[in-house]
Amino acid sequence: MKTTELISFPGRDNPLIRKLILSGLLTERKVASSTSPAVVAVSKYTLRTIFQTLKSVFYSLIGFGLLLLFWEIVSRVTKGELPTPAATLTVLWSLLTNPFYDNGPNDKGIAIQLWASMVRVFYGFGLGSLLAIPVGILIGTSETLKKILYPIIQILKPVSPLAWFPIGLVAFKSAPTATIFIIFITSLWPTLINTAFGVASIPADHKNVAKAFGFSKTKYLFKILLPYALPHIITGLRLSIGVAWLVIVAGEMLSGGTGIGFFVWDSWNGLSLEKVISAILIIGTVGLLFDKIFTYIEKLVTYGK
Amino acid sequence: MENNVVVLEQEAAENTSTALSMQIRNLKIAFDTPKGEYVAVKNINLQVKQGEIISIIGHSGCGKSTILNAIGGFIKPAKGEVVLNGKTVKGPGPDRGFVFQNYSLLPWMSVYKNIYEAVDSVLKEKTEAEKKATVELYINAVGLTPHKDKYPSQISGGMKQRVAIARAFAINPKFLLLDEPFGALDALTKGTMHVELLKLWNMDNRSKTIVMVTHDIEEAIFLSDRIVVMNDGPAATIREIVPVNLPRPRNKKEIVHQEEYMRTRDRLIGLLMDKVSIEDFK
Lengths: 305, 282
Fold this sequence. Notes:
heterodimer, A: mainly alpha, two-stranded antiparallel sheet, 2 strands, about 0% strand, flat, B: alpha/beta, six-stranded mixed beta sheet, four-stranded antiparallel beta sheet, disordered N terminus
């Protein structure tokens, strides 16, 4: 164990520098050259990470800046047909600062509307996943089942969610339930197809292990099939929740009552484009959040990396 | 002391008196291809006694792995049969421990778990503590105790193959089927692994029958009692079965100087290689 002798250098006792050293972002290292008094070296890796993050933040700020500029120009050219960024952001701010008010059925805070939408999405998406994952596993395991079910899936998959709405209304006699139904039926497919793909692509090597050591069906399911297919299943779920979040706005425009989709439609009827654009920004942000959460889970379940 | 000797002798007598543990009768294996039937091997006849180590050697594509897969029950023969202890092979079973060519460890499980799941699946009647003890015993036997919590991606090829071999032994099968088990290892690691394999075989009083596929002549001689030399495929047959009359335990450094070793090696090279010098290219 060599002890590193620390040489003093200008700023070494600066409280900020000390803090960085203590937090591990900066490491003190002796520099061989006697002419240079500096011994602080940020470990190359952390330095690069910080720099990369700052760089990407900077670039995305440029992107948003350009968007705001374009928006401002359009709203000036159209002489206020499109509200200005400043006016919109003021409205957005007022929405976000008072999110929980409830002034009767047609005037609720944005958080209440968002929550109503999220609850529907989770019901529809949750039920969809509960069906999609087992069916996906069956299709991935059995070539015969795949042949039977795949044509049906291929026909139903591209159908617009709105086309399902009347069916939902007839079946459930309730617009909010019909909304959950259309989310269910449209968010099924990505999970189903990804699960089936994941299960079907289990390498012969892994299957041979199960055969050679006489794994029971349960052991095969939990020790080979699911661990192998899990990353694919999560990818499917990530795509599915994206679809569900797309569909909810359209669904709630039709069903009315509560929810972010209803809010957009209601704001349009109230002739407040500022509110509509604010809602669009909020919807986009929530969608991004969902995506990030599932991307994170995907990383967690990917083995061997 | 004397009693012990008597017991050992009795055991030895029992071992030698055991009937054939493996019989391959008139085996033919064929695959359907778009161009029609492709015969991999045919007319394969082989009798193996319990506790024998048999190597199948031949050039690439001679169907040696195919025969092993038929014994393992992964491939159904087009004709003939493989009989293990009086029963015709219908499919894979826990009486055979298989060591696959590419280790076939499950990447999402630790070394310990990879062996444990096999043990848990085969030795159902054992208690949890017994299963754990068995796993620990075999991990220790291949020297992987310090690495038992690592994942397959974190260990070397030699270690992976040790895990695969420990897994095959841990289920206590009557037969061990090894498909080019050391093919991907460097020469030095290979040498150590040969000795480790024999050590595991000795742990069970040499009662397990081992069939191994290889393309390494020295490996085959060091490990085997008999070496099955294959003709080239397609429709490969057995060319000759070469006995290795070297006493056990064998010593890697010493056997190479024995006359029997050299004679066997000459015979195998004669059977497997047409060209043994640049002179032969003229």
